[in-house]
């Protein structure tokens, strides 16, 4: 709205000044008192037009004669003027000036005795008494020779044939002509400066609107310079054709530029996309007509000239339609457009109406004001556009600053950190907690950080980084860095980057994925445990179905023998073994979901001692199994579970010693400090990878068929139900120690079910 | 002398059927053993039973379905269920469902068959006193 106010003030102040400057000439417009005759073929001479019966149209007294575009290139317009008696007494000469710069030749016939005194003016001629040629016909005569007499003028022009005839004193003419040229000069200078500014701004800011307006202004300047005779008179004396090219070609170029500029300024594309398409085609057509106009000038055709006015009026009507459409959705913008372009559109319309309806006659003020109105419009639009551009630039800069601040805030608060490096891998920008944590900062190279990778693929990440830098491709790598503060003694980070646009280097993020990886591992573990649950259920069902007849039938048959009978003892062993097997099966389920079994509960220490006795009988002779127990009996647990834990651990130890070595079982501790059960062997030990995966279900180092991979997971499941932690220490070639640490203070039996769910 | 109460034994494992039949027969009952839910339904259509003892997890018509179908046609037949667990149902879940659907008691294999006989005795005595 500020723009609208500014434009309104400019218009209100400037328009009256322009009108006043144009009118203050002190000259006499004698067009309205001229009778006129149109010689379509150009064949008539002074004798023909002075002969009685010459078909002159009488002067209207108010309007100058007007015939619109010349009907042919040789056509001429004759004017018969009864020159009024001038009474200024200055003794100055009289100047007949025809204010039509496109007139090529004018001949003045003044009665002299029985004949005629003939004065001729042609393009590029110096006006009588002036030091420079005039842009339009001006012929000077002593006042006494013309005052009160009837003179004839023959006018030849390819342009509009109008009787815009003025009678000046020569002093008055010279000053008025000078003032007029000065006014044009100032307008040209201002407009040219504006056009250059807009063109430069349009190019720098890639702003189509500024570019279109600059084109419009330049087209208009070209048109006026050509149309007003500046080219052939001052710039390139005698170059009439250049002037005509500029004038006629410029006319259509103005239409084309206007049809580009108006929809851009009015944002027609946003509001009415279909209309925008139509206008774009219209603009393209106007551009084609520009070329056609140049051709028509070259071949001296007047055909296209007759269509200038209808085409121009259509273009103006089109612009006004766009304004009306825009007014419905964005009235301030439509009003600004009207304020800026009102003068030019009105002037242009009037000017072209003169050609379309010649009967309205020539009004020199209207015709000439067109130029000044157009200059004013262009000036106002330039100012509005410049302000608009500045405002948009300011808004864009503000938005960019806000985006930068927001981005920095994100960068500093996000778990992802941002970094950028140049073509040599040197860090040029780094922001965020992960960058800070891993020492990624300006001055170091990304390669240095990647080289600290302790995971197996360390060299790989660095090689891929160099390759990405070299060929300008994306980079994505996860690495592990040693980090004492992290739970796993290492920090897992992921680098992701894309090439920086237009220059070597990479830009991207680095994220700390330690937690994410740990969570993924936990989930995988849970999925495996669920799978075990399924499998254990199936296995338990099959085995229990087999154990049921073993236990019951052996017991039934045993009952048929006397208690002392050896066969009864054997069958009792079958029954007992079956029950123990059943307990192991339910123990398998315990690792997934411990069923309560309150009947078989006992302190851990004695249960272990009992289990040792059984295990000893099962072990090969070359294996030495030792057991040491502290004074305290330990927490009360399910005896079957105690047996399973020990049996699995001892079985693993025996496997590790390859059937020949030492296995030491230790149980000690107190209620207050907690208990520890450890099983230690001097077997082959495990490497780090095996140690880390030892608790994974189905992970086994044994040959296929020799192990299920369920031993340690079952121990783990039971230990968890005791609230206990498992620690595995191992050294390849030295041995392994598995320790189950049961915390003190809270009796594990009490919270067993709860703990197993945790 | 009243006829011996007949016990229907349903299990897809032959050894289990043999073991249970031995126990039931030794206790003085008649034993009809079938290997599937469908055979059980056929037997139920042909003969009167004092008690039905069925495994839960079997191929085809499983024990839970069998219990449900028996309950739909014959509300009064006492049913005892057995299970060794299974991949889809835990022992606890199967047991509680069997009870919901109308089994008097659920035995978890391997169980003491004397307990089963005691339960059958009690059911039969209950039926006789009515």
Task: Report on the architecture of this protein.
The complex is a heterodimer of chains A (758) and B (130). Chain A is 53% helix and 19% strand. In chain A, the strands form 6 sheets. Chain A has a 5-stranded antiparallel sheet with strand order 2-4-9-6-7, with no helix packed on it. With 758 residues, chain A is α+β, with helices and mostly antiparallel strands. The longest helix of chain A has 50 residues, at 364-413. Chain B is of the alpha/beta class and 130 residues long. Chain B has one domain (6-90, 103-129): Rossmann fold, CATH 3.40.50.2300. Chain B has helices spanning 14-26, 37-46, 63-73, 91-101, 113-129; strands at 6-10, 30-34, 51-55, 79-83, 105-108. A 5-stranded parallel sheet of chain B has the order 2-1-3-4-5, sandwiched between helices. The relative contact order of chain B is 0.17. The chains are: A alpha+beta (758), B alpha/beta (130). At the A-B interface, α16 and α17 of A face α1 of B.
Write the layout of secondary structure elements.
The complex is a heterodimer of chains A (758) and B (130).
Chain A: H1 2-23, E1 28-29, E2 34-39, H2 46-50, E3 66-69, E4 76-82, E5 93-98, E6 105-112, E7 115-122, E8 138-142, H3 143-146, E9 150-156, E10 160-162, E11 165-169, H4 170-204, H5 208-227, H6 230-235, H7 240-266, H8 268-271, H9 273-298, H10 305-329, H11 331-356, H12 364-413, E12 416-422, E13 427-431, H13 433-438, H14 446-451, H15 458-471, E14 475-482, E15 490-499, E16 505-512, H16 514-558, H17 566-590, E17 601-603, H18 604-618, E18 623-629, E19 636-638, H19 639-656, E20 661-670, E21 674-681, H20 688-693, H21 711-721, E22 725-731, E23 735-742, H22 752-757
Helix pairs in contact in A: 1-11, 1-12, 4-5, 4-12, 5-7, 5-12, 7-9, 7-10, 10-11, 11-12, 16-17, 18-19, 19-21
Chain B: E1 6-10, H1 14-26, E2 30-34, H2 37-46, E3 51-55, H3 63-73, E4 79-83, H4 91-101, E5 105-108, H5 113-129
Helix pairs in contact in B: 2-3, 3-4
């Amino acid at each position: 709205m500020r723009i609208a106010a500014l434009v309104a003030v400019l218009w209100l102040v400037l328009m009256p000044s322009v009108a006043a400057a144009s009118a203050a000439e002190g000259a006499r417009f004698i067009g309205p008192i001229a009778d006129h005759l149109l010689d379509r073929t150009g064949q008539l001479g002074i004798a023909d037009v002075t002969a009685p019966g010459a078909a002159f149209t009488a002067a209207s007294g108010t309007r100058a004669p007007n015939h619109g575009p010349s009907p042919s290139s040789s056509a001429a317009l004759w004017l018969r003027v009864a020159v009024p008696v001038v009474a200024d007494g200055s003794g100055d000469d009289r100047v007949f000036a025809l204010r039509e710069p496109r007139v090529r030749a004018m001949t003045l016939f003044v009665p002299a005795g029985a004949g005629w005194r003939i004065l001729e003016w042609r393009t590029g001629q110096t006006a009588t008494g002036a030091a420079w040629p005039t842009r339009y016909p001006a012929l000077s005569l002593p006042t006494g020779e013309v005052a009160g007499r009837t003179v004839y003028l023959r006018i030849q022009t390819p342009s509009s044939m109008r009787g815009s005839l003025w009678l000046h004193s020569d002093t008055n003419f010279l000053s008025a002509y000078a003032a007029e040229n000065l006014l044009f000069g100032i307008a040209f200078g201002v407009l040219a400066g504006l056009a250059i500014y807009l063109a430069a701004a349009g190019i720098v800011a890639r702003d189509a609107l500024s570019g279109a307006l600059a084109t419009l202004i330049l087209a208009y300047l070209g048109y006026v310079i050509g149309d007003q005779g500046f080219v052939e008179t001052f710039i390139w004396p005698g170059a009439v054709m250049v002037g005509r090219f500029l004038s006629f070609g410029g006319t259509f170029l103005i239409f084309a530029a206007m049809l580009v500029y108006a929809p851009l300024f009015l944002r027609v594309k946003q509001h009415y996309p279909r209309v925008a398409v139509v206008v774009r085609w219209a603009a393209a057509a106007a551009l084609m007509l520009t070329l056609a106009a140049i051709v028509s000038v070259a071949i001296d055709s007047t055909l296209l000239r007759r269509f200038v006015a209808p085409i121009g009026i259509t273009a103006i009507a089109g612009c006004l339609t766009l304004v009306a459409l825009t007014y419905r959705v964005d009235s301030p913008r439509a009003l600004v457009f009207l304020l800026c372009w009102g003068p030019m559109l009105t002037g242009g319309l009037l000017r072209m109406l003169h050609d379309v309806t010649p009967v309205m006659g020539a009004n020199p003020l209207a015709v000439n004001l067109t130029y000044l109105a157009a200059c004013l419009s262009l000036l106002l639009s330039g100012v509005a556009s410049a302000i608009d551009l500045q405002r948009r630039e300011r808004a864009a800069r503000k938005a960019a600053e806000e985006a930068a601040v927001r981005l920095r805030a994100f960068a500093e608060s996000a778990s992802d950190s941002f970094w950028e490096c140049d073509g040599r891998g040197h860090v040029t920008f780094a922001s965020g907690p992960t960058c800070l944590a891993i020492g990624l900062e300006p001055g170091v190279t990304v390669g240095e950080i990647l080289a600290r990778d302790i995971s197996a693929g360390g060299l790989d990440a660095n090689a891929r980084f160099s390759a990405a830098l070299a060929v300008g491709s994306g980079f994505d790598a996860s690495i592990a860095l040693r980090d004492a503060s992290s739970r796993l003694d290492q920090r897992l980070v992921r680098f992701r980057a894309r090439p920086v646009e237009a220059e070597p280097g990479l830009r991207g993020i680095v994220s700390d994925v330690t937690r994410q990886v740990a969570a993924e591992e936990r989930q995988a573990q849970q999925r495996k445990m669920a799978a075990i649950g399924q499998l254990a259920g199936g296995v338990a069902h099959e085995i229990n179905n087999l154990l049921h007849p073993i236990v019951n039938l052996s017991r039934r048959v045993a009952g048929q023998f006397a208690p002392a009978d050896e066969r009864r003892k054997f069958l009792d062993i079958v029954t007992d073994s079956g029950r123990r097997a059943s307990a192991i099966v339910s123990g398998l389920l315990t690792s997934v979901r411990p069923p309560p079994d309150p009947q078989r509960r006992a302190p851990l220490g004695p249960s272990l001692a009992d289990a040792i006795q059984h295990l000893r009988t099962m072990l090969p002779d070359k294996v030495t199994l030792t057991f040491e127990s502290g004074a305290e009996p330990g927490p009360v647990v399910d005896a079957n579970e105690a047996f399973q834990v020990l049996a699995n651990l001892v079985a693993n130890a025996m496997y590790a010693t390859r059937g020949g070595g030492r296995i030491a079982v230790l149980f000690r501790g107190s209620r207050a400090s907690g208990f520890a059960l450890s099983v230690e062997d001097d077997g082959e030990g495990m490497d780090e990878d095996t140690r880390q995966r030892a608790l994974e279900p189905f992970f086994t180092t044994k040959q296929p068929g020799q192990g299920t991979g369920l031993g340690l997971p079952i121990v783990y499941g039971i230990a968890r139900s005791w609230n206990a932690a498992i620690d595995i220490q191992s050294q390849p070639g030295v041995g392994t120690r598995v320790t189950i640490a049961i915390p003190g203070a809270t009796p594990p039996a009490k919270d067993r079910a709860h703990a197993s769910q945790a | 002398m009243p006829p011996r109460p007949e016990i229907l034994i349903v299990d897809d494992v032959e050894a289990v059927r043999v073991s249970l039949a031995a126990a039931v027969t030794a206790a003085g009952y008649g034993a009809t053993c079938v290997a599937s839910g469908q055979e059980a339904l056929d037997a139920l259509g042909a003969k009167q039973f004092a008690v039905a003892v069925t495994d839960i997890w079997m191929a085809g018509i499983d024990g839970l379905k069998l219990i449900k179908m028996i309950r739909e046609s014959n509300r009064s037949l006492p049913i005892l269920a057995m299970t060794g667990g299974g991949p889809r149902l835990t022992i606890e879940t199967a047991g509680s469902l069997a009870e919901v659907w109308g089994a008097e008691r659920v035995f978890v294999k391997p169980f003491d068959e004397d307990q089963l006989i005691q339960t059958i005795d009690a059911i039969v005595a209950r039926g006789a006193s009515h």
